[in-house]
Fold these 4 entries.
Entry 1:
Amino acid sequence: MDSVMIITALLMLVSGIGVFLISCNMLSSNLESMSSSKLRAMFSKASKSKLRGVGIGAISTAAIQSSGATTVLVIGFVNAGIMTLPLAASIIYGANIGTTITAQIVALGSFGNSISMTAIFSAFAGIGAFMNMFAKTDKYRTIGGTIAGFGLLFVGLSLMSDSMEGFAQLPEVKEFLASIDNILILLLLGVVLTAIVQSSSVVTGIAVVMVAGGMLSLEQGIYLAMGSNIGSCIVAIIAGFTSGLNAKRSALIHLLFNTFGVIIFVVADFVLKIFGFSFGTIFESLFPDMGAVQLAMFHTFFNCVTVIIMLPLTNHLISLVTKILPDKVEDTPVDDSAPHFFFINDYMLKTPAIAVEQVKNEIINMSHLAMGNFRRSYNMVQTMDFSEMDKFEADEDQIDFLNKEVARYLVKLSNLPLSAKDSVYISTAYRSITDLERIGDYAENIMEYAKKMKDTNEGFSNIAKAEIDKVEKMVEELYDKILVAYSMNDHRSLKHAYEIEEEIDKFTSEMAENHIKRLNEGICTLDVGAKYLALASDTERVADHLINFGKTIRDMCQCNECS
């Protein structure tokens, strides 16, 4: 093989790796979009069942083709306080099982008549591309992108296999690769390569191809694959160790789980060699003359057995992690009253479909804060009791924070691959947070009316208080309907909300008319009356903003009733 052929082969190898990486990214993004609703449903079913957690981790990782994304997402949930460490650990275990599907797909291209199989599956790239170009709906474009990504995976494998075929025959290459027999070097190589490309699936896939092409022995491939499992923890470690304590613990659980698994198998392989066996010889005998299948099956076996061993030891692993990263009682406690996110963080952006769902939860929580202040302001204006003033001000700061920071988060989210439905939701979310922030402002106005009346030792008449109490109940009923409509996309509740909002409009007009009568009768003073009129107007505007908040669900509906 002359220098020109060597350079050509190297260029093909780099091209193949590039196509392989792009295909993995396409599969991940498109599969995620297709399965977003299922992913949301699975992650919302957080329970104490470890087996269910393993299943959730395995299925979600197989769906989005990225154990790193799943693990980072779990760390985000733990950091947000909506997932426990035991559940996070079990999902991380499952993610290690789900990630083995990529190696199995790669091995499939080498099974039997590899040329025809590769050609058949590579053709999917063209089929998917045509679907993506000519599809009229977002759903079919996503399906086309998934099929194209699957086909490109085999195109990349074909390029890599062809480039390695000549190299595998060179005596110099054989001697160099054969010289790498130190298991620690092979493990470290797997760790470093995975840390660089940030995907254990990619490194294991390349190892499968190299074993199939004869460039690596099965033994070498096994240790590279095990090293890649440790290297896959790098992204999670970065995400976890820039977050809260439990997020750090989740990242450490991931690292220790994979490290313990490698140690167990290294020791087991050493014991087997004493008796003249090894994992390499065992899988060679189970799948003769199928190098790619041998490594892919070992990879699946390794991860499944590690989960079986570690699952009953989860509580002990959590105890160990807690001792390594203990609660620091001497530190200044975190000020929970400081403005912060409750449900979202940047790590969730790794999985946009889940991030969208969490944005919705964040906005619903923002509505609770706004309505909480509305209730406090009404209580203040009727009772002149300002004992909850500190809570009112803290929640107003929180509402202002969410109004600005959720908007920034939505900008980041809108630049990521989203389904058509999620894209529409993001566009409505901007308006929703604005409407909720305005409700908070009107509550602040009403609170100011109460403060001024207290300063002047004035107050509303009993008749006026009765009207205020009635309209508050009407707004509460409106909010209940709006919350159901927004949370469940319930258009029947939205229809009822419109009816209640019309009643509030009529009643606030009656409040103004009744006030004029009381003013003429001398029951109420001019200054207090002005505040009463302003309160009625503010209440009517709160109802309008609640309706605006709820009717955003119409933008996501295709039915004739809502168009």
Entry 2:
Amino acid sequence: MVSVLFNWLYIAVTAFLAGVALCAFIRRTVGYRVTDVSCIVAAGLMAVTVYAQVFSLFGRVGAAANLVLAAACLVVAVAGRRQIAGLLSGVWENKSTAWKLVMALSVAAWCFCTSRGYMHYDSDLYHAQAIRWIEEYRAVKGLGNIHVRFAYNSSFFALSALYSMKFLTGRSLHAVNGFMALLLWIQVLRLFDAQGRTGRTVVTGFARLGAFYYLTVIYSDIVSPASDYAIMCVVFFIVIRWLELLEQEEESAAPYALLCVAGVYAVTLKLTAGLILILLAKPAYMLLREKRQKDIGIYLVMGLVTIVPWLVRTVILSGYLLYPFPSLDLFDMDWKIPAAEAALDAAEIRTWGRGINNAALVDLPVWEWFPGWFRESLPVVGKALVAADIVCLPVFIALLAVQFRRGDMSAAGRMRKGQLLALATVLASYGFWQLSAPLLRYGYAYVLLVVMITSGILCDNLIKYFDKRQKKDMIKKAAVLGVCALWVFSAVKLASLARHIHDKSAEKAYVWQQDYGNYTLESYEVEGVPFYYPVYGDRTGYDHFPSVPRQVPVLFRGQSVEEGFYPKKQEME
């Protein structure tokens, strides 16, 4: 826990200062001031992730990368000391003792959960090794040829490598997921904070409730550096902030456009998050209507700066602009993963998500694989959520028809359109997830947000219906029942967290975070370089490097690892 806490302190300080610098740029260029500290930290995390990816193109992400980051942050701290002091004093001094106690307990609980728990299977399969490659070498050409999963290239791994502190501690920390979960938890806590609720609609509250449920699902797993948890937390954060801006009747296009830049960041965490960019419709319309070409250019540049380093890394690792999409073949690289192997990898991802262990069945019609997937792959709660999501589609169509029939151009009407746009976005994301690789952990945010936003809009309409008929007593009674239900639900979920803490309290992870798994490995040499592989199964963990899931032929492009790898087919030729 101690290692996690100090790691978080470093992450928080550097992300906050990077966020301060980024928000200063935003204020000077588009005239929008970001004052919410959690948003500043989130913006800083995005900036630091881009920095880590750029650095990885030229060298290992370790001591030098952190030294440059720390020096830049020191400059920001000195230059913006007055602004920083004002932001931080406002956060702490204006809060009650109860709030401070809740925050302290929250940090302690999430720190505990991040220090120990279930290490995801894929983390010992390839996450740990992917992070270590970034720690040890600059981006290696054709790295996906020795293990195709290295070509997935989530930007989360570059961020994890930057903050792993291997050069300082002798072990690779993996606490970023826990920090992201804590940031989302701070958004969730506004459910219980009167100052954090606008009271105009209940839709944002429902979205926060969905995030609360998600966090109570993953608290035992966030010790793992899996990108699935990071991307779900980011999606929740974007949608909650979007809905909150609508309730605050924000008229500026800037915050919506900035959330869309965050959507571009989400794509670099996991490519399947791409449909979150449907939200672009609102700020694009606002900016085009106001003919603000300069602002449009600034947001486009921000989006490009966010995504281009990730695209470059993907090309270096796989030979493709997007992997695993071999049909988008734009480059003639000698290290390119063979198209057949990339296509097989894509098919395996989809069929595995559908509960089918046969890549040849990737084109099976949805009505043939869906019943078995629904019956065998989902827990009881998952079945209920998916069934509810399917029902939400015709409800959304009905809500959309009613909204456009009214043609309401008031502030309330614009807010409702923005909420429906958010619902359309998560519905489209849910549909893409459902029809591609519907493993629940790949799309938990979409599954929850569809039903929660729909429920929030329906509940809000019901409240207005009774309000128009002057049945305020009924509304008050329903509100009291709703609050009571929320507290009961929260108590049940928090009791589950308490049990988890009790069950894991005996584990010796109070100083150092639980490490990656240990496995029995053997090695074989390629041009004097030992490559490790497991005696049983396919997991290798972190310590033995470089590792591959099985003994495979490896062909260097040059005389050393740094020069990259050829695809295996060239060795056979």
Entry 3:
Amino acid sequence: MSYLRFEKAVMTNLQESLRRELLRTNRSGAYSCSTIVDCNTRKYHGLLVVPVPELDDENHVLLSSLDVSVIQHGAEFNLGLHKYQGNNFSPKGHKYIREFDCDKVPTTLYRVGGVLLRKEVVFQHYEDRILLRYTLVDAHSATTLRFKPFLAFRSVRQFTHENSTASREYHPVTNGIRTCMYAGYPDLYMQFSKKNEFVFQPDWYRGVEYPKEQERGYASNEDLYVPGYFEMSIKKGESIVFAASTSAISTTGLKALFEEEVQERAPRDNFFHCLVNAAHQFHKREKEDRYLLAGYPWFKCRARDTFISLPGLTLAIDEQDYFELVMQTAMRGLREFMNGEPLSVSIYEIEQPDVLLWAVWAIQQYAKHAGKEACAERYGDLVDEIIDYIRDAKHPNLHPDDNGLLYSNGRDKAVTWMNSTANGRPVVPRSGYIVEFNALWYNALRFAAAMAADKGNAERAAELEEHAEVCKESFIDTFLNQYGYLLDYVDGAAMDWSVRPNMIFAAAFDYSPLNQDQKKSVLDVCTRELLTPKGLRSLSPKSGGYNPMYVGPQTQRDYAYHQGTAWPWLGGFYMEACLKLYRRTRLSFIERQMVGYEDEMNYHALGTISELFDGNPPFHGRGAMSFAMNVAEILRTLKLLEKYTYQK
């Protein structure tokens, strides 16, 4: 039986099928996304969603959906599905679905009377082109297919509504048409592998509703433009390929192209392969540069996310070459930032104070994978530059103090990963000596010292070790309290006694300012108060302000974002700390934790991990449908499990 397969009972039950989403990407920033029954429930959903750099840096929905109808003996059976206002669904094509399978490519099997029609979907790699193949598996009489495209031509953050500005103009191209609704947008090419008749029948479908936007407290209605429909006959056993793209294609090669794309796809036949597939979806290529997107459908490439997720998305699946490609691009951006030069890379938030520290951590993981010599040769100079940049107080918001710790001002602007804001101010104003910043700093100093020693620079190694010792003593004095856990931040007389997960890094990093007993104490507190089947909570239920449910309008969600919600990527560091402290005795415990993540493969966005989860049962997935740091840390945990399982 297939790993990601759903029978008729699930597909025809909209309460079950509408909450399951499917994401396909082309590794160049474009994507295709909807529910498994092809009913769009978010404004971010669409069959062809592409970046339009001439307009802005957002993605844009060009082709919202494509309805296919089966026609026999003059009777039309529409297989599409749209939700309209008043909880009305039309045309209810989901009732014809017999099964859905996406082990290799998403495949839907429809039965209409004696007709058995199979639909398969792939997104062409590195091209803004979605391909759909329709195969008439069985039919007892002459069959015609009718295709009706629903167009949007708008940003993923907006809606389109019926208007007189939208162009109805279209131009015939080989086996299809090209059209463009608004100036500034690229043409949309819709072509088939077979000759067909296009019937120009322009109309607006009004009041299409997106329930996911309603849940999030946003406007949720739009109108979609249908220019007409394509119609062609199909014989039993015949396949027809449809292509939607921003460029024309030779239609004679569409069938071969579809088959080539299918052959390139790796199967998603188990938990690990699903995560590898998800890891590849975060890849983004811009000319010679390589990036990692922070998540789908709305995140861009963010610096902190890049460095935290880079080892898990590459090294943990033995893809060292992509680590090096991404780091090559990121390294240029880091140096431009440190030199005060304009950025030539498409990486956001590179100025955040912990970004340089996470970059060193990522390089440290590379050293463990590729070897110290290779790491020193490739990244040794960068590590030294980062360390000196911070020690020389050149960062605008990361200041070294005489006590060896780093100070950052986060009172008025969020500076850590807990970056939600309300009314222009941080919901969690973490400021001063921030616990993970200084755990990262101690780790970076010791790692840089080890690299210097390996290179034979004993003087620099000793200097860095001395600095690290000062940092270590101050870290213990500043953060460790009498209850055995670490304060979240200390800013003068202000101390945050909330039990938060940021202390786990001090127990997980290779170089820790804590001794074994202190690490165990921190781990025990995290286990008792923060651990869930979906990672660590962002705040203990015993701490003031606990708000575990990420629901409601934007402001309500902002206040819950880091006040009790659970994050799988934090769980990755928790499990690393477990393995380092207790080694093989915790293997079965961590394997059970992995089960909580594997359950997610069949829910929310299939085969990947949501951005965050409610902190209370049933730990429902929320936020972005696919989040890079979560996928990365689960992959890294699986790699660590393998290491400790076979360790003598």
Entry 4:
Amino acid sequence: MEDVGDPHFQEYAYRLAAKMAQRYASHPALMAFGMCNELGSGFISYSPTARERFVAWLKRRYCTLETLNHAWASHRWSRKLQSFEQVDFPIGGEVVGAPERYLDMRRFFSQELVEYMAGLKDTVNRFAPGIPVSSNHWAENPAVGFDYNHSWRRLTDFSGQGFYPGINPEDEKGIIGACFCNVHRAVENPLPDWNLEFQVGGNGGYGCPRKAMRMYAYLTYIYGSQAILAWTWRSMLGGEEQYLFGLLDHDGEPSWKLWEFRQIAEEAKLLEEKRLFPRKRQPEIAIAYSFEDLLISEYAKDYYTVSHRDQAVEAFTAAYRLNRDCALVDLREIENQYRVLILPGNAEMTPETEASIRKQLEGGATVIMTAFSAKVDENNQVFDTSLPGRLCDVFGVKVRGFDRAVTHVSAVNVGSLEKTPMKLLRRKVSIGKNGETWLDEINYHEFLELTTAQPLVEYEGAEGPFTTAISCNPYGKGKAIYVGVPADEKMLRKLLEDVCAIKPAFNGLPLGIAARALDEDKTLYVNTTREPLTFLGEGRGLFTGKEYKGQVCLPPYEVELLER
């Protein structure tokens, strides 16, 4: 896993894959091939041979030294390259070099990993034609990761993942994060996805509370899963995961978790009989999620105080709580037209992504862009034009600086003197409209000069001549909304409901109930909390056999399929 781009490693890996594909291609029990385990995790190899491949990659990408020097801003600090052979990895120990070089280095390692995975799939297709492939890769891994959104078509047939919300279902953040990964792996793939690892225990934890594992299973079903494979089946006697407890105990005897898993399987048969399995997602909301935007925001944390991933999760949470499907799309190549496209701190704006945004707007979408977006070009250099870069005319605004209500200290010790990390609240800034507070106690907020846009919501408590917090500009058949603060799920829910007319899918459902209409007369309800929750409903429960006359009460972690 440390250097999958090495040609000698690949020679052996592809040879093994070919032998396995030939051996099992006609086996009657074969359903699919899983390609390796958690590719994208591990560590990055900065070996001499990896550096040589990096230099060759740069030659292919930039062709001339002049183009490379321009892309890397090498006139800064006497870094001008006299030859490609002078290139080295811009990282050593805890020191990370210039942003342009760092982004290219991570692009290089990402592309090598993608090419290796694509080679595995090609090998299986050659020796076992017609057999699908999947992978519980780890594209989101913070240490390595890779650009999955832009490459998914080449890598798998059925998108795969490990579903690990944690063994404490009270942690809503863990549940939402696991569902976020589920949707990230799907991208715009019309096929269902497979949970190739599904959490049944934890390291040192025997399992979730009773019924919570089944609740997790139905959340994966809501978000498009067709398969859940228990990790692990039997608790292992040795190795690093010997205390990651499975469905069978160490002596091979079944635990109570096995019977709960059997109930999930039996109910899946019922869903299949009713032609409700797997569930087809129908997203009207798209969230632009990007490996490169994440790298850019994580690199410059002093400025990007809220990372791209955190903003994307906030946007996802807004759709989650509205019980609306959404897609996490690649902004460079969006296949479908959406009703709403959210850009949650997409810092990089290239000609490709610019064209994609304009196309969605021309098709009638409402595009919502939040703070920290469109700050740098494809080389990770800050625009020398007004911001948002390449899109001022689209959004009808110019960003005229920013402020922070809470002061901060840079991680860089400027001036050789230690600075005091004063968390000083200089002023309270909020966003509100018609006496209603949309967002309270804001830190980072941008000053918006309106050119053609109209104000939607104002800052309260901010200093300066620019008071607009959220603006709206007509463009094509759509609307371009600029939000001067980082994404927040409550604020985005207000925008979706009040401006985009995307209301909760079900009226009167308490927070904590995840629900989807499966056909004209069947609706699935999942209580994700440890409290009993009550809501209006009428019909017959296909899972419990109960008759509901006007009111449904779901016990903690319980699931019901209600037929009117």
